Amino acid sequence: MKSLLWSLLYIASMLLSHVLATFYSNVGDPQVISAQSYAQTRNNGRPPFRTLNPAKTDSQCRSRPLDLVFIIDSSRSVRPGEFEKVKIFLADMVDTLDVGSDATRVAVVNYASTVKIEFLLKDHFNKPDMKKAISRIEPLAAGTMTGLAIKTAVNEAFTEQSGARPRSRKISKVAIIVTDGRPQDQVEEVSATARASGIEIYAVGVDRADMRSLKLMASIPLDDHVFYVETYGVIEKLTSKFRETLCGLDPCAMGHDCEHICVNSNASYYCKCRHGYILNADKKTCSLKQVKVEVVVEDPCKCEARLAFQKQTQMAIQQLTAKNILSVVSDGRRFIINTDVSGRIEHLENMVGRV
Question: What distance in Å separates the CA atoms of residue 191 and residue 62, rounded to the nearest whole number?
Answer without folding.
Answer: 29
